[in-house]
Design goal:
This protein is an alpha/beta fold. It is 24% helix and 28% strand. It binds inosinic acid and magnesium ion.
């Protein structure tokens, strides 16, 4: 599997350090939000994480353990790279959005912001449900021109325009289990 990588872009230690920092920042912001409303981070039932499946699973698992707040999960699945391709085919939602987001503080979590279509789609569907707030958090932000204007409130790393795998990110369903993030060799695609 490692032979299919051209190089490691971000190793596991850097990822862990950054996820820890992001957790502190996000937890601080969410707690401040609850504070303003006079509710407590221990007891509020209003924080909902909405991870975009499947790419965000590992990031989600690490990030949510950095958030010492009462929260729930509402998964959403979006497909944009069906089959063996490194080209986005446009984001389509699979199945249902989590029910009952009205009045909740929503944090969307995704692995990477690329064309922006995935995040824009999920954000617009969530906003239709009248949440109290909606923030977006991505581990990676590709430095490319977005096809759709969309903003991530939290971004772990800025990366160049290359197809990356590992730490949840896949090519054709594989490489998600690599602990580091690497650039895929062109021959492997
Ligand atoms: P966007 O809709 O183009 O912004 O792409 C976001 C989605 O595409 C992410 O949730 C990823 O699943 C996938 N994606 C985009 N770029 C990459 C990449 O370099 N490697 C693996 N998946 C990617
Ligand atoms: Mg994805």
């Amino acid at each position: 599997m490692l032979h299919d990588l051209e190089r490691i872009l971000i190793d596991r230690e850097r990822i862990a350090a950054r996820v820890h920092e992001m957790g502190e920042q996000i937890a601080g912001d969410l707690m401040a939000e609850l504070d303003r409303e006079g509710s407590s981070a221990e007891s509020s039932e209003r924080i909902v994480l909405v991870p975009i499946m499947v790419g965000s699973v590992i990031f989600l698992a690490d990030l949510m353990r950095e958030l010492p707040i009462k929260l729930s999960l509402g998964l959403v699945a979006v497909s944009s790279y069906p089959g063996a391709t490194v080209q986005s085919k446009g984001a389509t939602i699979q199945g249902e959005l989590p029910a009952d987001l009205k009045g909740k503080h929503v944090l969307i979590i995704d692995d990477i912001l690329d064309s922006g279509r995935t995040l824009a789609l999920v954000k617009s569907l969530i906003l239709e449900r009248s949440p109290a707030s909606c923030r977006a958090c991505v581990l990676l932000e590709k430095q490319v021109e977005r096809a759709v204007e969309v903003h991530a409130d939290y971004a772990g790393f800025q990366i160049p325009d290359a197809f990356v795998v590992g730490y949840g990110l896949d090519f054709d369903g594989h490489y998600r289990n690599l602990p580091d993030i690497g650039v895929l060799r062109v021959e492997a695609t």
